[in-house]
Amino acid sequence: MTHAIRVHKVGGPDVLSYEPVEIGEPGPGEAKIRQEAIGLNFIDVYYRTGLYKAPSLPFIPGNEGAGIVISVGPGVSNIKPGDRVAYVALGAYAEERIVPADRLVIVPDGIDLKTAAAVMLKGMTAQYLLRRTFHVKKGDTILIHAAAGGVGLIAGQWAKHLGATVIGTASSPEKIELAKANGYDHVINYRTENFVERVKELTGGQGVDVVYDSVGKDTFPASLDVLKPFGMFVSFGQSSGSIPPFDIAILQQKGSLFATRPSLNQYTAKRHDLEAIAKDLFSVIESGVVSVHINQTYALKDAAKAHADLESRKTTGVSVLIP
């Protein structure tokens, strides 16, 4: 018998219940892993509150983790017992779990498993945002909201390495300094400054090529107002609430803009894309282009406190749960 966090009904952090569970053995195409660490993400909150619908109730939340393969089911050839692996798949808040083997990637020896667990979702998100959704290149000017968040800190370093001028927003002086230490050229305190006016000042009235927005309701439609003509608005989260329905004509009115709502699930649906995105992420970490600092660590049984801290914006960067 092992332990996991289960959600029997959607709601606040108090619905996260630490309890014994029976995991069983892997079936065809599956692997059983002993988890070393589990990543904490806002998407976990979305599932807990019901904003994102879980397949069934009760369910085990959590979307990324890393550990050691214990056993594999019939037909599995890409991994073997003893391998160090990481993944993005719902059901991570557990000491042990079963994962489809084709969703697992081998973690290079130069990366510890806590780091791997902390960056699989956030780091692969940063990869597809910067290298696939909008291909950031030297000379681009970009805006990333929530610059001191998990994706924000990784994306800031990576985008700076690619040669972009990187502007961010954050909510406190401490978070601003953290972002500046992680690749950002300019960071705007959105609580005390009008970020639209400030971006226009920083860009000489030109605006930015792309906005990466995981905040949602509080930054829309203002995010459209900082874009150059033909710029791209990339919505990849809604920590402040969902963006309300809008008239698509607003994109024409504000400069023939592009808008997209991408998802990591689609970008990694094919095995070769998952491997390529993970390989690119691991390479920038191993080379030192991206430094990952785990700023908060919680015991798995304290997941409710971790969620409360995340929602109240007490956390910065990446956080992990330890079984």
UniProtKB/TrEMBL annotation:
- Please state every residue range assigned to the domain named Enoyl reductase (ER): 11-321
Keyword NADP included in the entry's annotation: yes
What Gene Ontology molecular-function terms does this entry list? mRNA 3'-UTR AU-rich region binding; NADPH binding; quinone reductase (NADPH) activity; zinc ion binding
| Gene3D superfamilies in alphabetical order | Medium-chain alcohol dehydrogenases, catalytic domain, NAD(P)-binding Rossmann-like Domain
**Which PROSITE patterns does this UniProt record tie to the protein?**
QOR_ZETA_CRYSTAL
Q: Which InterPro entries match?
A: ADH-like_C, ADH-like_N, ER, GroES-like_sf, NAD(P)-bd_dom_sf, QOR-like, Quin_OxRdtase/zeta-crystal_CS
One family name in Pfam for this protein: ADH_N
Q: Name one GO cellular component term.
A: cytosol
Q: Which PANTHER family match?
A: QUINONE OXIDOREDUCTASE PIG3-RELATED, QUINONE OXIDOREDUCTASE-RELATED
Name under which the protein is recorded: NADPH:quinone reductase-like Zn-dependent oxidoreductase
Q: Which organism is it from?
A: Phyllobacterium leguminum
User: What taxonomic lineage is listed for the species of origin?
Assistant: Bacteria, Pseudomonadati, Pseudomonadota, Alphaproteobacteria, Hyphomicrobiales
